[in-house]
């Protein structure tokens, strides 16, 4: 991969995005497509048919060795040794005080092989933290972030599009793959790791391939999917889709000041992990997270629906009411108009006493108090 004069890393699909007329933006040190046509059109295509995303900015870290599983149990909040071969788990790497360093997806690719996918903005810090935490274990970390491309096909027609390009011997493997699983498959002649995971709230797949093979695979997926309604989709649509699905974004809903429990994700913290002798297994952040699990936090993440037409945005103040002197009671972490639902939606941190569904609050939208109501997350669930 190369860099542009601004020192952003260029995706292996950069020339494809330029050829498609994408609007490019700097994101986490990469030049990535923001949109190709319109944010709403790309969002709606994913909900109705399918979208094709370039996720090559994400990090791919391989952990291998006889003590890879034990090392990850000690390094992360999840119970990775319990993940069965071929499955994946959503987890987090936390600091000693319980703050989230990054949220991760970990794939078990063998008894001693794990693939960790980290957020682009955090690859370096996650890699360095893992190297430190794995130092006492017989395990090796290999960073393949810059030699691996990742593309995603997301939407209700994703399976149909992907299996149409999959080698006959692998079609049933892809079709029968459960959510949060992965398998090797040949797609349009390319050996790929195909995972049934995603960040849109829809069914879909993510395909890991060598960077040099990504352009040919991208073009094949576009050609196969276009008659079925697939469109290329950029970061903007990806963000509005994940917001509707109530999925957290690192730097918005998750950061070093936030514990998994604050974000309503305490389920990923496995305090029942035990060592070989049956004693509680120590992992980084355990003491702080155990204390937080048994106490009420100072804030909690909630969903908000706008009762007016103006949308809240990241960083806007959440206030107690529409009255001019109403006090600030929280901060919006993510917000946008919802193309699917037809009204504004947002997520925000509030104090526990204001977190009950139906609580009415307001958001300061550029000096105007817009009414909102607390609702359960997610805002959208795909039809089954």
Automatic annotation (TrEMBL):
Domain annotation Aminomethyltransferase C-terminal: ranges: 299-380
Pfam family, one: GCV_T_C
UniProt-annotated binding residues for substrate: 206
Entry EC no(s): 2.1.2.10
Annotated GCVT N-terminal domain residues: 13-273
InterPro entries: GcvT, GcvT/YgfZ/DmdA, GcvT/YgfZ_C, GcvT_bac, GcvT_C, GCVT_N, TrmE/GcvT-like
Keyword Kinase attributed: no
Keywords assigned by UniProt, alphabetized: Aminotransferase, Methyltransferase, Transferase
Catalytic function, reaction form: N(6)-[(R)-S(8)-aminomethyldihydrolipoyl]-L-lysyl-[protein] + (6S)-5,6,7,8-tetrahydrofolate = N(6)-[(R)-dihydrolipoyl]-L-lysyl-[protein] + (6R)-5,10-methylene-5,6,7,8-tetrahydrofolate + NH4(+)
An annotated Gene Ontology molecular function: transaminase activity
Subunit details: The glycine cleavage system is composed of four proteins: P, T, L and H.
Protein name: Aminomethyltransferase
Record organism: Cellulomonas soli
Top-level taxonomy: Bacteria, Bacillati, Actinomycetota, Actinomycetes, Micrococcales
Gene name of this polypeptide: gcvT
């Amino acid at each position: 991969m190369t860099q542009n004069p601004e020192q952003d890393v260029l995706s292996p699909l950069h020339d494809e995005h330029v050829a498609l007329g994408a609007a490019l933006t700097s994101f986490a040190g990469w030049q990535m497509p923001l949109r190709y046509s319109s944010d709403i059109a790309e969002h709606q295509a994913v909900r109705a048919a399918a979208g094709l995303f370039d996720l090559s900015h994400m990090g791919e870290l391989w952990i291998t060795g006889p003590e890879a599983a034990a090392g990850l149990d000690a390094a992360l909040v999840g119970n990775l040794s319990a993940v069965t071969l071929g499955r994946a788990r959503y987890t987090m790497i936390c600091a000693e005080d319980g703050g989230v360093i990054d949220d991760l997806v970990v794939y078990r690719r063998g008894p001693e092989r794990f693939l960790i996918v980290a957020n682009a903005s955090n690859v370096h810090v996650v890699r360095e933290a893992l190297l430190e935490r794995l130092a006492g274990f017989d395990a090796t970390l290999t960073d393949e972030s810059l030699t691996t491309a990742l593309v995603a096909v997301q939407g209700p027609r994703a399976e149909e599009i992907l299996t149409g390009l999959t080698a006959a011997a692998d079609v049933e493997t892809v079709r029968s793959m459960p959510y949060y699983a992965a398998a090797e498959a040949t797609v349009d002649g390319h050996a790929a790791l195909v995972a049934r995971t995603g960040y849109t709230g829809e069914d879909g797949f993510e395909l890991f391939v060598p960077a040099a093979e990504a352009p040919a695979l991208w073009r094949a997926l576009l050609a196969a999917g276009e008659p079925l309604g697939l469109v290329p989709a950029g970061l903007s649509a990806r963000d509005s889709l994940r917001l509707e699905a109530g999925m957290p974004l690192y730097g918005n809903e998750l950061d070093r000041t936030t514990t998994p429990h604050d974000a309503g994700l305490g389920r990923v913290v496995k305090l029942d992990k035990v060592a070989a002798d049956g004693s509680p297994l120590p992992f980084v952040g355990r003491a702080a997270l155990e204390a937080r699990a048994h106490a009420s936090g100072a804030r909690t993440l909630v969903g908000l629906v706008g009762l007016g037409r103006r949308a809240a945005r990241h960083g806007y103040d959440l206030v107690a009411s529409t009255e001019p002197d109403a006090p600030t009671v929280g901060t919006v972490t993510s917000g946008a108009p919802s193309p699917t639902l037809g009204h504004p939606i947002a997520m925000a941190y509030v104090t526990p006493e204001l977190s009950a569904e139906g609580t009415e609050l307001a958001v300061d939208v550029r000096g105007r108090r817009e009414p909102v109501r607390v609702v359960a997350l997610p805002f959208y669930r795909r039809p089954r």
